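Q: My labmate handed me this sequence with no annotations at all. I'd like to see what the chain might look like in three dimensions before we decide whether it's worth expressing. Could you predict it?
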Amino acid sequence: MTPLDLTTRRADTDAPLITPLVERWSPRAYDPAAELSDDDVRTLLEAARWAPSANNLQPWRFIVARRGTEAFTTVHDALLGFNQAWADSAAALIVNIAEVADESGAPRPWAKYDLGQAVAHLTVQAQHDDLHTHQMGGFDGARLAEAFGLREGLEIVSITAVGKVGDADALPEPLREREVAPRRRKPLDELVISAA
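A: Here is what I predict for the chain of 196 residues:
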């Protein structure tokens, strides 16, 4: 296996950032032999748990499916398109769920935003722990909700692949090309509408 030179994946930032943010990127090539320990999983979820949320409601839930388990197969089989072509080598697939309504049906309008914060915390912690994550939106949410018996008011928003970086040459084209392509971001002046 010949993993990528991770120094080539560092972000070329316009301002100094902390190391986990500079080094964070979303690989598709994962080491199929790497595993997550119970402590690894607990640490990632603990980082998510301490994210801020509206009224401290913490409207996030997670399904952690480690490679080699029935849950992993269920999540992997619900992935769509190219996601199935590479996600099978991740050490785990984490289903990210927003509690958009509580058990009485009362809406939680900021739940998806809050879940995003929790997943971002998980992602930065993973990077700090020498793990990499890749967020996915291509999946059959209804299939997963049924498979895991999710109640009304719980909405699957994304799935996060987690693991150690693997060999980009193991990816099918054009995914291999995308894996090694230069990283780009829009400049700040395109993103900021007004700054005083």
